[in-house]
Amino acid sequence: MNISDVAKKTGLTSKAIRFYEEKGIVTPPLRSDNGYRSYSQKHLEELTLLRQARQVGFNLEECGELVNLFNDPGRHSADVKSRTLQKVADIERHIEELQAMRKHLLALAEACPGDDSADCPIIDNLSGCCHHKEKAKA
């Protein structure tokens, strides 16, 4: 298969496929005499794994580990499960951080009059000061 065939079958762009090859995340394809890449079913499977792993939040390094596990006939499913559960814990932590940010932003918006005045509790809070009030006192 050539790179455009693989791109169509995996849902990745040719540019993304070359990037993953450059980073050493997937097995490098063989090159024909004219220098074109020649992909096998194994490459298709690695790239599909990589695309789907990225879609559920694995970063490039983690994807590389998953591709290595995919290619290791002696792998243990416990290793894959452990990495997956660690990713779930990372996502849950991130969700908690996002919820805290949302709550903070909603509280800031609630404190802001949202009118034509320059006084803005949102800016004051985010900047860590109340410079408008200090200028008024001077």
Automatic annotation (TrEMBL):
Protein keywords: Activator, Coiled coil, Copper, Cytoplasm, DNA-binding, Metal-binding, Transcription, Transcription regulation
Stretches assigned to the HTH merR-type domain: 1-69
KW Transmembrane (keyword) present: no
Compartment(s): Cytoplasm
GO biological process: positive regulation of DNA-templated transcription
One Pfam family cited in the UniProt record for this chain: MerR_1
Stretches of the chain forming a coiled coil according to its record: 81-108
The organism's place on the tree of life at top rank: Bacteria
SMART domains, sorted: HTH_MERR (SM00422)
GO cellular component: cytoplasm
InterPro entries: CueR (IPR011789), DNA-bd_dom_put_sf (IPR009061), MerR-type_HTH_dom (IPR000551), MerR_fam (IPR047057)
MF (Gene Ontology): copper ion binding; DNA binding; DNA-binding transcription factor activity
UniProt-listed Gene3D superfamilies: 1.10.1660.10
Subunit-structure text: Homodimer.
UniProt xrefs under NCBIfam families: CueR, PRK10227.1
Annotated protein name in UniProt: HTH-type transcriptional regulator CueR
UniProt source species: Trabulsiella odontotermitis
